Structure formats: structure tokens, C-alpha cells
Amino acid sequence: MPLLRRVRAVAVSAALLATGSFAVSANAQAAPEEAPPPADCVEHGSALRYLVVFEPGTSAPLAEAGIAAACGATTSYHPQIAVAVAVSADPGFGSRIGPHRAYSAQLDGLSKRTGAPARKKDGDEVAGTRTAEGAVDRTAEQWDMDLIRAAEAHAVSTGSRDVVVGVLDSGIDPTHPDLVGALDPELSAGCTTGVADPATAAWSPTTSAHGTHVAGVIAAADDGLGTTGVAPGVRIASVKVVDDDGFIYPEYAVCGFMWAAERGMTITNNSYFIDPWVFTCQDKAGQAVVYEAVRRAVEHATARGVLTVAAMGNSAADLTKPALDPQSPTNAASEDVKPRPVDSSCLVLPAQLRNVVAVSSVGADQVKAGYSSYGLGAVDVTAPGGDRKQQPDDGRSGCVLSTVPAGYDYSCGTSMAAPHVSGVAALLASRHPQADAPELNRMLNQQAETLPCPADYDLNGTGAQDAYCTGYSEYNGFYGHGLVDALAAVRD
Q1: What is the greatest pairwise CA distance in the chain?
Q2: Is residue 288 scored above 90 in pLDDT?
Q3: What is the pLDDT of residue 130?
Q4: Peptidase S8/S53 domain spans which residues (predicted)?
Q5: CATH code 3.40.50.200 region(s) in the chain
């Protein structure tokens, strides 16, 4: 009897793989749960992770059977979106299950490296000057909070403990005095294997201070010491999606979005773009798998009431204008700027997905930071991310001061702008507890302070425009609907 069950399971899975579709009838859903791999599976080196997309509605037993038939093992399956994470040491796994269904960012990364693994060059943060001083009130240095009227908002509300912001990032220091009161360990998890791990070690920072900095912008305590966040009365959760090499592979992000959705978080902050590409193309093999998996995860989170806030990125690129030629020097001013592919279906994930609040960055003078990406129809709102060239008139640093493990640090980037928006959204959610994600999105847009296109955007005085702002005062490619306003959020 066991032998008959094995033959049937493999036969069902093999037939599904051969058709290239996992859409099945209700009867087929009753296929046996155990599906031993075929006899011709081989192991070659270490097991690699794959993201696998199935037809919507595919049951867990059927998905697991399909993966086993392709010589893999399922480590995680999200039936709500029919997306799995699988591992396989067989180099033929991807071709067996189909390149239109599976992609391994891990394999792609390894195939492009020589020698020791290279750390990702951080394209979404401009580092500042580290300082460990913290036993004093540092709020006078927070020009960014002045810009969005955070202190005035706190006189009305600091936010509700019922609101939870998931910080999908590199981890949050659980011992930082400014964050310990806001951080909820029970809602935190590490996702850097593609499978959520609630152990403290899995969601704590290891090689990057980025997530702790972002968390401080959102919810650092208003206690007269250190810095103060936009919404110090709300809770935050550490959802670690950045590995020790600095990469955010798609299975990490999918895991993070699903964790946030299933645990009833209100908002997620996403200060990153999904690796291994700056632009993920919907019509290219492998990339299409990533796009579909992440799209499904974000839409599921939205349907569960989670508002997704994301950074636009620091490529200084117009995200709504295709490049004439990706190889042209005129489209790559420096090695840090990745030109937009010709194909307009190539998007920055997750910022350019539907239902995501995409955030550009301004400096202290409320002008788009030179590094910030932009684009009419791509930007929803803007927020202070800092710019060394736009220092406040009183001499304060042009970057954003916030928490880092064992102290405080200045950083500039759209990574810093996004958490200001998440904080304002948290204040809105606190005041309007019945609002769903689309309603919070709409309110964010409505309460933003209008910023018209600058008459002159010549940042370095060369006589040439460094970027072109299109649109009109109430909605344009630099600032979207405008600068978020914490005081307006608590008054609405």
C-alpha cells in the first residue's frame, strides 16, 4: 500500500508540472500529502532557497507534492497567496518546476560573485557621523520633527498602543532606552531564511544599525532624553528582512509582509528595495516570479488592513520615465545610479506596487534631496530624509538624528523619510481606529502640506537643471501630494 501511494503522489505531481499549471479541481486537491522525490534527484553542493509561485487556491499538500516531485523540500507555504519557499540541492530543481514558477535570488547572487561574498552596497542610506552620546535631551537637533510639526502634535496625541508599526528592516536593538518601551517582542520575528523565526536573536540587529535608526524616527520615547519619534505612544515590531550581507531577498520580504498581515499590524515601514535588482521587470524570467510573489503578499497585507509605506530609493531616478538606453553613459551619472530599464514594466519593489505609499525625501529647506528618486504618479507623499547640502540655518546637521545600537547617529536617505510617513500614519490610525489601509492612505494624501515644484532645481550651480519636476502644485513628481504633517494628522 505505501508503494502505491508513493507512485500515485509522484504521478499526480509530475502531471501538474508537465502542464505548467497548478490550477486543479477539488478532487485533485485531495492528492496524498506525502510525495517522495523522484529517483533521479541528485545533490550538488549546498541546498539553495527558491521562491515558488503557484496558481491561486493551490492547497498546501498539492504545493508540497509539486515541490517534492521537482527534487525540493518545502520550508514555508503561504496558502493565502499560493507562494512557497523551498530548498533544494539539486541543480535541476528550477527547470523541473519551471522557471516561470521558481526563482532563487541566493543562486543568482552566488553565480555573480567571485571569491568571498560581497556585501551589498547600500543604495538606500547615506551614512552620517556616529555619536554614542545619549544621556541628554537631543530633540533640539531634530529639525526633521520641527518640519512636520511633531512636537505640536504630541501636545494633542502621541498615538495609541493599539497601533503597531512593523519595521521591516535589519532588526531593532531591544535594549535601546528610547525604544524598549515601544518594542513588542511578541510581534517580532526574523525572516532572513524566508521562514518567520520569533526568537530574539533572529530579529535583533547584527551587522547593520539601519533598522534601529528607522525605528527611532517612528517611535523613540518622548522622555526628555535622547531623541523623540513621530508617534512615541504606538508600538513597533522588529521584522528582520535584511541579512548579514545587507541583502533583502524577495523571500525575506514576502515572509515579512505575511507575518505583519497575520499578526494584525497596522502599518509596515519598508526602507529598502528588493534585491537582487533595483528594478524588477514583470516580463523577464525569474524577475516575474519575484514581482508576482511580492505583489500578492502586499495585496494580502492590504486586504488584512495593513498600510504599506516604502522608500522611493536613492538613485535620483525618474521612476516614471523609461531610459532611452540602459547602457548609455547619459543615463548613469555614477556607479551608484542604476538607470531605469527601457521596459516600463520594470518597477522598484515594493515602492511602486499598487496600494503602497511611496515616499520621496526633502532636506531642511523642503526641497527634494538630490539623491531622492521621483516621478509623477510614482510619489505619493514626501518627508524629511535629510541632505548635507540643505543644512538648517541654525547650523544643525542636514541629516536625520535617530537611535542606533548603543547610541545615536545622523543619516540621510529616503530610508529616513519613509518612517516619518509611517509615524504620521500611525497617528492617523490612532485617531481613526476603524480606518482600513486604503482610508489611511487617502487621509495621508489629504492632510499633506502642498509643496509646488521648485522654480529652479539647479543644485550645484552649473546652470543646468538636475531633475525636472512635472505636475501641478497639489500633486507633482517631486513631492506627490505634499509634505506629511503630524499636527494635521491628530487634528483631523
Answers
A1: 81
A2: yes
A3: 52
A4: 161-462
A5: 126-454+468-491
The whole-number average pLDDT for the span 414-431 is 98
Residue-wise pLDDT for 214-231, tens only, equals 999 999 999 999 999 999
| 360 band by pLDDT with thresholds 50, 70 and 90 | very high
Catalytic annotation, pick one of 90, 124, 169, 387: 169
Residue 36 vs residue 470, higher pLDDT: 470
Annotated catalytic residue within 204, 315, 397, 415: 415
CATH 3.40.50.2300 fits 126-454+468-491, yes or no: no
Q: What are phi and psi of 34, to 5 degrees?
A: -95, 125
Which one of 78, 176, 210, 300 is the catalytic residue? 210
**Confidence category of residue 62, pLDDT binned at 50, 70, 90:** very high
pLDDT tens by residue, 375-385: 999 999 999 99
Backbone angles phi, psi at 63, to 5 degrees: -65, -45
The predicted pLDDT at position 112 comes to 55
Average pLDDT over residues 461-477: 94
**How confident is the model at residue 339, as a pLDDT?**
60
Identify whether 415 is a catalytic site residue: yes
Q: Is 210 known to be catalytic?
A: yes
Residue 47: CB atoms within 10 Å: 17
Say what the pTM is. Answer: 0.89
CB atoms near residue 200 (< 10 Å): 13
Secondary structure of the chain in HEC code, one letter for each residue: CHHHHHHHHHHHHHHHHHHCCCCCCCCHHHCCCCCCCCCCCCCCCCCEEEEEECCCCCCHHHHHHHHHHCCCEEEEEECCCCEEEEEECCCCHHHHHCCCCEECHHHHHHHCCCCCCCCCCCCCCEEEEEECCCCCECHHHCHHHHHCCHHHHHCCCCCCCCCEEEEEECCCCCCCCCCCCCECHHHCEECCCCCCECCHHHHCCCCCCHHHHHHHHHHCCCCCCECCCCCCCCEEEEEECCCCCCCCCHHHHHHHHHHHHHCCCCEEEECCCCCCCCCEECCCCCHHHHHHHHHHHHHHHHHCCCEEEEECCCCCCECCCCCCCCCCHHHCCCCCCCCCCCCCCEECCCCCCCCEEEEEEECCCCCECCCCCECCCCCCEEEECCCCCCCCCCCCCCCEEEEECCEEEEEECHHHHHHHHHHHHHHHHHHCCCCCHHHHHHHHHHHCECCCCCCCCCCCCCCCCCCCCCEECCEECCCECCECCHHHHHHC
pLDDT for the residue 333? 35
Nearest partner of 448 among 410, 474, 478, 430, judged by Cα: 474
